[in-house]
Amino acid sequence: MSSLTERMARLIVHGERPYNAEPPLTRLRARYRTPAEDFYVRSHGDLPEIDAAAWRLSVDGAHVGPLDLSLADLRARFPEATVTATMQCAGNRRADMRAVAPVSGDPWDGGAIGTADWTGVRLGDVLRAAGVAPGANLHSDLHVAFESQDVVEGRPYGVSIPLAKAVAGETLLAFAMNGASLLPEHGFPVRAVVPGFAGVRSPKWLKRITVQDHPSTNPMQADDYKLFPPDVTAETANPAKGHTIETMPLNAAICEPARGARLKAGETTIRGYAIAGDRAIVRVDVSGDGGRSWHQATLEHEAGAPFAWTFWEIVLDLPSGERDLVVRAWDSAGQTQPARPDETWNFKGYLSASWHRVRVEVA
Q: Which pTM does this prediction carry?
């Protein structure tokens, strides 16, 4: 296995402590399943060093557990499951909002996203073994809180998800990624994988799971990852009035050619990805003239993977000159993306999902 330093050298690093990095978009589009070394890294604290043999996961809560599980226990007591799913940071494409007005957070391009085969056990199986009623469903007011081994501003990382999502068949406690053990930066030895939700809800380096009648009170859940209107500032934001980010919006990005590329006039292949949570991508439109005219791309999606992205590709005949390539996607609800980042700008730069634009020079 390559070293962390070698893997960092492959990525665009936005910060070393905490470690945050994304792959170049051209390499992201090279494979439907993103190799672990090319998968974006989002950390809020230092990477913890964990001995897998000594690792334990506790499960507790009102009328639940307690359970104390080792990695061997997880593998032996529960059936293994694999889910192909895309994970995406809530700040993906923040750079587009940053171009409108200043925002806080790392200046992610479109690479804070990736798709993998996640293997582990279903969180619902573990919760039922701990005493959660088999009939737990959408009408439950319970929440599942996670506590991790990484420390953020003096406190363990902590978030929660609704019980209904926790017991859904796609939600995992994963110990492998694309058939190999998790890398340290991706949550070794065990992380949560919550498909369709923002990556912040899929905590790494798990330590404890608690079933409770309220969302986590950890600052990561109670104060951060909230969506606010454009007139709210960091100074005026009231976390209690912000929308808690869970499900991710419809989005699409151009991965090839790269921004600023110099191309020859004539037929040019344009490639990228589109994603719509658990909804299907039904159409991707691409423009070679800034959005004045549109052409439909060819779509590639794997059957049986509703939480995975769609790849798209098109060949356009580009005349010489400076050209603005633009993409927009449509989902199965008939929804499409806002045209400009101004329309959804917020001071945190979350959920940037406007038309993606790439300016190239054609000679």
A: 0.96
Instruction: Please say which residue of 184, 216, 244 terminates a domain.
Output: 244
**Which helix (H) or strand (E) segment is 128 a member of?**
helix 123-130
Between CA 345 and CA 97 the distance in angstroms is: 6
State the residue range of the domain holding 306.
251-362
Shared domain check, 294 and 172: no
Residue 146 contacts residue 204 (beta carbons within 8 Å): no
Please write the tens of the pLDDT for every residue from 85-94. Answer: 999 999 999 9
Q: 259: closest CA among 327, 349, 308? A: 327
Phi, psi for residue 222 in degrees, rounded to 5? -80, -30
Rounded CA gap, 59 and 63, in Å?
A: 11
Q: Which residues of the chain have pLDDT under 70?
A: 1, 136-139
Q: How far apart are CA 37 and CA 50, in angstroms?
A: 19
Domain boundary among 244, 274, 295: 244
pLDDT digits (tens, 9 = 90+) for 244-284: 999 999 999 999 999 999 999 999 999 999 999 889 999 99
Are 8 and 112 contained in the same domain?
yes
Give yes or no: residues 160 and 306 share one domain.
no
